[in-house]
Amino acid sequence: MTLDSYLEKNGYSQDLRDLIQVITAQVQPIKDEFLGGEEKAGTYNIYGEEQIKLDKRANEILLEAFRNSNLVKQVASEEENEVIHLNSKKGHFGVTMDPLDGSSLIPTNLTVGIIISIYKNGEVMSGLKNITQAFYILLGPLTVMVFAGKNEVAEFLYNKEGIFDLVKEGIILPEGKIYSPGGLKNKWTDAHRDVIRTLQENGFKLRYSGSFTPDFHQILNYGGVFTYPALTDKPYGKLRVLFEVGPMAFIAEKAGGAAIDGKSRILDIIPTKVDQRTPVYIGSKEVVLKIKEKLSLK
Ligand code: AHG
Ligand code: MN
Ligand code: MN
């Protein structure tokens, strides 16, 4: 079954199906930019990170597609300084994007991704509780999409014709023992150090690539926890609420997992700024809840 037939079968609106089609049609053009895409662009984003050409091209390609679609009211992108209001008469969706997640892995040819969330109410700053669909596209040996909407998570594989075909539906994030610990160890807080020590003592296996999308994908498949915690010099950690953590938290919860900032549920965040960051612990429900308990004792 194709992605579009899956969306139709599950009762998504024609507009939503059109929007997903607009986004998936950009996958090949973005993949085509990989050759030479690792070169530095000579510019910096709002986080002070030096952009590579691929970050900029993926952003431009998607943005242009949204402009032409007449379906989108607001776009927020990790590579833009502020929310972009599109003046389309018909457009009513809000979209957030990390056009290229894990860009430091492009020069080493490792898996990266595109992370998207959709707000049916059109308002990307209205709070993560208003996300209605979220998905990521893994650009690895295979091109794969993991889509969450309503109460269901499904995986699709990009075929030779450039169409996403259903591979699995009803995906459940299992309890498991992978851990993916971000952030410099010498900047971890004592409380976080303790959490990691407990995972290690309980036989958790380390898997960390430096790109949230494939790292989270492993957790979705095998269970465990991905964390990018509060650091002694960065109390909000590194990852971004709107573009990275919010969409993945939505996917994790729809698959029966959990996502917290240490104390509170990620999906309860109402961001006050477009570049807001948050610490995150995301993965198997029981593992994340145990971490929450442990951190609350500190
Ligand atoms: P981006 O390439 O979109 O800037 O995101 C990189 C993020 C995320 O994908 C990853 O989990 C994290 O940064 C890695 O950070 P470290 O290099 O500090 O491990
Ligand atoms: Mn990212
Ligand atoms: Mn990015």
In short:
It is built from eight helices and 15 strands. It has helices at 3-9, 14-24, 27-31, 53-69, 190-201, 212-222, 241-254, 285-296; strands spanning 40-44, 50-52, 72-77, 84-85, 93-101, 112-119, 131-139, 143-149, 152-158, 164-168, 178-181, 205-206, 224-228, 258-260, 280-283. A hairpin with a 3-residue loop joins strand 7 and strand 8.
Walkthrough of the structure:
Helix content is 30%, strand content 27%. With 298 residues, it is α+β, with helices and mostly antiparallel strands. The chain folds into 2 domains: 3-168, Fructose-1,6-Bisphosphatase, subunit A, domain 1 (Fructose-1,6-Bisphosphatase, Chain A, domain 1), CATH 3.30.540.10; 178-296, D-Maltodextrin-Binding Protein, domain 2, CATH 3.40.190.80. The strands form 3 sheets. An 8-stranded mixed beta sheet has the order 4-3-5-6-7-8-9-10, with helices on both faces. It has a 5-stranded mixed beta sheet with strand order 12-11-13-15-14, sandwiched between helices. A two-stranded antiparallel sheet has the order 1-2. It is globular and about 50 Å long. The N and C termini lie far apart (49 Å). The mean pLDDT is 97. The site of one manganese (II) ion (MN) has 4 residues, from β5.
Instruction: Report the biggest beta sheet as strand number plus sense, adding barrel if it closes.
Output: 8 strands, mixed
Mean pLDDT: 97
Q: Give the number of DSSP strands.
A: 15
Distance between the termini: 49 Å
CATH superfamily of the largest domain: Fructose-1,6-Bisphosphatase, subunit A, domain 1
